[in-house]
Amino acid sequence: MAQRRGQGRLVETVASGIAELIPDADRPAAYSLMLDGAPQSYVDLEDPTHLEFEYIRRMAAAIDLIAPAGAPVRALHLGGGALTLPRYIAATRPGSPQRVVEIDGPLVEMVRRELPLHAKANVRVRVADARAALEGMRDGGYDVVILDVFAGARTPAHLASVEFAREAARVLAPAGWLIANVADGPPLRFARAQVATIRAALPQACLVADAAVLRGRRFGNLVVIAGRTPPPVAELTRRAAGDWFPGRVETDLDRFSGGAAPVTDSVAVASPPPPAGLFSDRK
């Protein structure tokens, strides 16, 4: 049951936990979505190009470079949250056909009700497991696959294997890109294995992240951009350096992965939980 609390905060139980929609006091049409205390999404209904989370801005920078500015792209989003990137693509690339796969049906209904999409956004949302949905899709159907799936604050193990990565590669067009959000902290064991796993299916890749995260000094998000053709490293580097919180692009992924082997279904594990208290200042 949904409950309204102080200053417009909405609290509702969904399939994956306790969801909260928290208004931004500085932006009248903006909201943060929290799930069990972990930040999941930030949406500005009046300006969907305003992206609050730095890792989302890094994913958006890659999306900007997929095709000429304004040209439609076929986008598949594995993980929905509050639909931040689908809204961004609809605003910056009008007419883009987009599909979202989100496993939490009550969360989808909450977002549809409280944060409705623009009437002209060509976004279809399917309630399903990301991997199961992917396996039923046709080859080469998408220009970009965006992977940002978390059960609470962890990526499920069945979405962290080479078998899954090959399914994602299968539905990509020949020049398409997988853009994946990987969360990890020191010593980056999970991230190194994920880079090796994704590159086993899509060998041309780079990483974009905060320098301290790349060096294994703190927990954070690493964005993997991978395909069959080289990513636009120079432009990604320029955009990462010019961000509100400057990031770095890593291209020596053999060195980064440090000999890690691709992870198969038989040994795949969920991403590590964030350190206790990491999100306490965002509540």
UniProtKB/TrEMBL annotation:
Stretch list, region Disordered: 263-283
Coiled coil spans: none
Keyword Cytoplasm appears in the UniProt entry: no
CDD domains reported for this sequence: AdoMet_MTases (cd02440)
Keyword NADP: no
UniProtKB keywords: Polyamine biosynthesis
Protein name as it appears in the record: Spermidine synthase
Native species: Paractinoplanes rhizophilus
